[in-house]
Design brief:
Blueprint: H1 12-16, H2 19-42, H3 47-69, H4 79-110
Helix pairs in contact: 2-3
Length: about 120
């Protein structure tokens, strides 16, 4: 695939790389993960609320990493990376969901119910 550049440094993906972008992505992810760890350590929320807060922190960190570190956006020269990400996300979610369903069903079918447990 040619973009009309003889010099690889002039390639659009290389031009997007910047120390500021990488540092921003790393810093946002670090702050979110440190905050999530602190909330878990201090038991700041009830269990379900904590799960929701951790999920939101992880989702924001993933978006920050995709944008700042992987440079995936909707620009023309980056369209195939974006298409591959859009196709990957549902497959990933289906894979995780089916794995969880398989193991939960396996647990229910193989673990004996102890007397006195409901």
């Amino acid at each position: 695939m040619s973009h009309g550049h003889d010099n690889p440094i002039l390639h659009p993906e290389v031009q997007m790389a910047s120390t500021r972008g990488y540092f921003t992505g790393f810093l946002v992810s670090l702050i979110l993960m440190t905050g999530a760890t602190a909330m878990v350590s201090s038991h700041a929320f009830p269990p379900f609320g904590l799960l929701l807060v951790i999920t939101v922190c992880a989702a924001i960190a993933i978006v920050a990493q995709i944008y700042f570190l992987l440079h995936i956006d909707i620009s023309e020269h980056n369209i195939w990376n974006t298409v591959s990400l859009v196709l990957f996300i549902p497959l990933f979610i289906i894979t995780i969901g089916l794995t969880w369903w398989m193991f939960s069903q396996l647990y229910l079918r193989t673990m004996p119910i102890m007397p006195g447990m409901h």
